[in-house]
C-alpha cells in the first residue's frame, strides 16, 4: 500500500492565496505621501468617532426612555 498523501501539501500557502499579494500594503504605503497617509488616518478616525457618537446618543436615549418609564410605573400606578 502506498503512503497516503498529506492534505496539507495540497493546501495553498497562506501568502500565495492572498489575491493582493504579500507586499501590497507596503507597496501602497510607499506610493502615498505622509500628508495623504495622515488624511486617510484622520478620515478613518472621523468615521469611527461618528459611529461611537451615534451609539452613545442611542444609548443615552434608551436610558432616558427607560428611566421615564420606571418613574411612570413607580409613581403613577
Please tell me about this protein's structure:
The structure is a single chain. The protein is mainly α and 77 residues long. It has helices spanning 7-10, 14-17, 24-31, 34-75. It is flat and about 80 Å long.
What is this structure's SSE topology?
Elements: H1 7-10, H2 14-17, H3 24-31, H4 34-75
Briefly say what this structure is.
By secondary structure, the chain is mainly α. The protein contains four helices and no strands.
Distance between the termini: 83 Å
| Percent of residues in helices | over 70%
Could you give a short account of the major beta sheet?
none
Count all strands and give the number. Answer: 0
Mean pLDDT across every amino acid position: 80
Structural class: mainly alpha
Number of helices: 4
Question: What pattern of helices and strands is seen along the backbone?
Answer: HHHH
Strand content: under 5%
**Low-pLDDT segments:** none
- So what's the overall shape? flat
Alpha carbon gyration radius = 27 Å
What are the key terms here?
single chain, 77 residues, mainly alpha, 4 helices, 75% helix, 0% strand, flat
Amino acid at each position: 500500500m502506498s503512503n497516503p498523501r498529506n492534505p496539507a501539501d495540497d493546501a495553498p500557502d497562506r501568502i500565495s492565496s492572498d489575491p493582493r499579494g504579500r507586499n501590497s500594503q507596503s507597496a501602497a504605503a510607499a506610493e502615498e505621501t505622509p500628508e495623504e497617509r495622515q488624511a486617510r488616518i484622520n478620515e478613518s478616525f472621523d468615521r469611527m468617532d461618528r459611529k461611537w457618537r451615534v451609539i452613545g446618543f442611542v444609548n443615552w436615549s434608551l436610558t432616558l426612555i427607560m428611566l421615564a418609564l420606571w418613574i411612570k410605573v413607580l409613581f403613577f400606578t
